[in-house]
């Protein structure tokens, strides 16, 4: 009889812990498994995620094709949560100069990528369309590669965690 109250107490504590665990799981797990579709997210079927480092590599590659910008010493990209992409290009040559700055805003226009130039520090070298093409052309090439021979529609652009995420529907 001495073990009976102890066993009852242990079963009561174990039952209480199981009840707390079930309550926490019920409140944290989404049983419907539905995606959050705010701002168009979750409606595409292919996603391209580019962080700041790969964006800098893509822009540097595009600059090498340009006779005006070839030979830049350094490209730095900063993706802001506001949706703005800031680019700093340090000119090459014997002595690096002051960084040239670009501020770009990627948007969706008729299901395609459209990059607006907010600040063009390269204005003396190339016009706004050329500055936008530094980032737009390599991204469009990757989106087309993802779609293959099919047509695609850009449905979402997100900038979070220093990354640019583009979602397309094929």
Features:
170 residues; 3 helices; alpha+beta; 7 strands; four-stranded antiparallel beta sheet
Strand and helix layout:
Blueprint: H1 3-28, E1 46-51, H2 52-64, E2 74-79, E3 85-90, E4 100-109, E5 112-120, H3 128-147, E6 153-160, E7 163-169
Antiparallel strand pairs: 1-7, 2-3, 3-4, 4-5, 6-7
Helix pairs in contact: 2-3
Task: Tell me what you see in this structure.
This protein is an alpha+beta fold. The protein is built from three helices and seven strands. The strands form two sheets. Strands 2-3-4-5 form a four-stranded antiparallel beta sheet, covered by helices on one side. The protein has a three-stranded antiparallel beta sheet with strand order 1-7-6. α2 crosses α3. It is elongated. The protein starts with a helix and ends with a strand.
Helix content: 25-40%
Order of helices and strands: HEHEEEEHEE
- What's the Cα radius of gyration? 26 Å
Write down the overall geometry.
Answer: elongated
Short précis:
The chain has 170 residues and is an alpha+beta fold. The chain has 3 helices and 7 strands; from the N terminus they run αβαββββαββ. The protein has helices at 3-28, 52-64, 128-147, and strands at residues 46-51, 74-79, 85-90, 100-109, 112-120, 153-160, 163-169.
